[in-house]
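Sample intake sheet
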Amino acid sequence: MDRRAYREFEAKLRFLLTNCFDANGLLRELSYTEFAFEIRQHVADGLSLVKTVDSVIEYLWSQTQFSIELVQWLRAIRGNGGWRSHIEELDGLLRAVDKNPAPTPQRPSPTLPIAEPRRWWSYPEEETVRFTLALGTSGGWRSEYPENGTLHASYDWSLPDRSQPGANGGSLVLPWNPGDLNLLRNQLSANPPRLRADEVHEVGHRLRRAIAALPGMTQELTRAYDEATRLNIGFELTVQSNTAAAQEIPWELFMLGLENTAHPLPLLAKGLVVRRLPGAKRAVEPAGDAGGSLLLAWSDSGADVQIDRHRATLNKHLPGAVTELKSPSLADIRKTTRQLEREGRPVRVLHIVCHGTEEFGRYGLQLGGEGSKPVYANQLRTLLEGLRPHLRLILLFACDSANPGDVVANPFGSLAQAALNAGCDVLASQFPLSTKAAASACDTIYENLVGHSASLQFAWREAVHGLHMDDPDRHDWASLVLLRPR
């Protein structure tokens, strides 16, 4: 199915769910017959089903009036094409469980909203084959460089049903020592770029060769990617590590494939790289938590940040939901978030736009006004603890916001890692990011995340692809990193 058809199909299913809630966000009583009519109306378009929206299945599963058989049927055909060929089978299941069928209601097809405004922060999950590479040992954050540059490594991969066809482990020799890695990051961060596209690809090949030394890695990686291709779903490389030495590596440059045909994983049609910390767990949203707002905190201290483009994008997609703070202190942010929570509009998304700063190997946010001190990782973590468990997403549009910096001077890790400990998803930049690229990525992310109710994985991938197409000679596309809690 092409991208436009999938978005239309997803929007229709979301509309169906939206109709199950009243204005207060409470579940309406919905007869099985009414549901049957709605789903028959929407699938009759003949759109092939590449993937079923997980929220639909979860909703059906939670409602006693819906049949287990129907849920199982939906799961069984997820990933297959041809809704049209399954309509008769679906009708049979619906008739079998609807003991008192009412006449089919005759009403015009509803006008579909672009997105559901009540819970715009609840984006769906993309179905993927997930290949997880775990590096390091158990325990807390490890800032020291490992002895002989060697880390314990294990890997496994799983299908959407959570089955794990393959797993193994061993020792991984890191492909760069601290000095060489620092030089590489400086080359990738330079403006104008100091590395040609083929040299950037060689960085990815070096990563590929390093992990290929693990027993069975190449074969299992190929099997996992082939399975994702067969199912026509995303392929996600998850790098999970509690060591600075592993988090410093630009995994987003990883080349997937054979030596002569490999391609950067994030630039593949359905490729994805996700970073995780072993101890970062997703916060559980309180029951009955219905309202929400977005907090835009920004500063142009030092230079322009094209804030007008960010503001225009946010107000276009979330009119009335945006609260803006210019050059705020941490106390200003804390005061505003508490006020919004009292009003029943807790902050769901924190959108930060400012310049990054570096001092003695530590990277910070130049968020306050002229002369203010930077915000470092430990301070950001303290601030965000006060926003749990409402916060769903943090966007750090600031240079080097995902850069751990000097591991001795900065034992807390990067700003993005500190944000991840708030239990929400984080989008950040591991290298310097041009203000033009930041504004373009903002446009793409909200257009997909809110405008098309797409998954965060899809929105990130579209932003990466867009930056690469805008200027393939720059490395802005490789700057964007996605960090997710477990």
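Comment: Residues 255 and 264 are 4 Å apart (CA to CA). The radius of gyration is 23 Å.
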